[in-house]
Amino acid sequence: MRLQHGRVVGYTVGYGLPLTDENKVWRFWLRMAKAHGVELHEVDRVLPAYVNHGRWVANCPVCNGGIMCPEPSLRGRRGACLDCGSIFRIDYPVGWRLIEAALNQRPDPVNRNWLLGETLAHLIAENQAHSVAEDG
Length: 136
What we know:
Layout: E1 9-10, H1 11-14, H2 22-36, E2 41-48, E3 50-52, E4 55-59, E5 66-68, E6 78-81, E7 86-91, H3 96-104, H4 120-129
């Protein structure tokens, strides 16, 4: 997978596909599920998203795989595990735009990580400790 160097992205965008609506996300998941040999099915559960290497992701409670999460701005807010085919509703943090802004100041996507419970103040302090300048 190619990481984008410009900003934190939804996982599907991290694959190099600028998916801007829910229908495109579903079509992408269907293609990927077919390639992985799994059948997609919805699970009635909400999972919290976090940022790993500049991508929004979640953990699959069914098979312990990784959940592909789309951009938080998409209204559908669902994520798919392509290991077992489970689709979950995804819960993004209230301040996701501020989290993305802090992480986007980091030049290398590998360093764009945010864990559940981590505060915006902590991200900003990390940026300052590593001499990452604020934009503007």
